[in-house]
Amino acid sequence: MGQTLSEKHAQNVQVFIPAALNRPTHTLYSISVVVHPTQQEWTINRRYSQFHQLRQDLLSAIHEGSHCPGCVIFTNHLMEMSFPSKSLFRTNRNVRKRVAVLQEFLRSLVQIVFLGETSECRNCGLRIREVLRAFLLRGAQPVGTSDLCKIQSTLCLHQCYRNKSEALKEPESNQIEFPRAESDRDSHSQSSEGTTEEVSFPSNNMFESSSEKCHDDALPLEQAMREVVIPEGAACTTADIMERLSSMWLAYESLSSDSSRLSMGTQHSFTL
């Protein structure tokens, strides 16, 4: 029996959390994104507060009182998704539990927003994709032969893989450009009448002042490596841990001696 459309789509975009950096004052989650049709892979780092803000911004992207079936379905899906509550305890055990929940949260969002087959209203649909795209792109660290310029547009280009009766072409202004501060501050969506509505989301602003890495002072390498939390059951070597450490902690950035270590096809142990 052949694959269904949804099963094929699930293979096109993969989002997973292969590691977290557990510090006394915060936990940083390393997120890997792989888009197979464009052969691009990158990692980003996010804190719990940024996941929480993403969820709030996605809810805000829906027009209040909207009766569009697609908006109602998306809102219901979002409210039903498991999301970890705030916690003062950052033990490795708790971090692993949170990694599992946040990973499933992101995976579900990508499935609905970029790969879903549900009809949506044009305005809210663009706003929702802009919010999630900003979360997945800002601070991107290319892996292997992936290119930053291609990464910036890869999720826009991926719209052609969606199974929709009426394809929506993203306007040029919706492309995310890292060098432009104004693009980072505002999300834009275009209504069916052709007018542009400008909306500012807190999650767009909160990434601007951060290099997306931990800025704490360096520790002895062996001690720092123990700060890297790997999900339960995930296969991982010492070299893998060092590579994750270099991508999350600025003081150990020089450890990244082989940028192709985490390239596509080598991280199957972490794939959802």
From TrEMBL:
Renumbered to this chain, region (Disordered) spans 171-212
InterPro entries, alphabetized: PX_dom (IPR001683), PX_dom_sf (IPR036871)
Q: Where is this chain compositionally biased, Basic and acidic residues type?
A: 179-188
Check the record and name the Pfam families matching this protein: PX
Q: Where is the PX domain?
A: 7-143
> From the UniProt record, which GO molecular function terms apply?
phosphatidylinositol binding
Compositionally biased tracts (Polar residues):
189-209
**Under what name is this protein listed?**
PX domain-containing protein
Q: What is the lineage of its organism?
A: Eukaryota, Sar, Stramenopiles, Oomycota, Peronosporomycetes
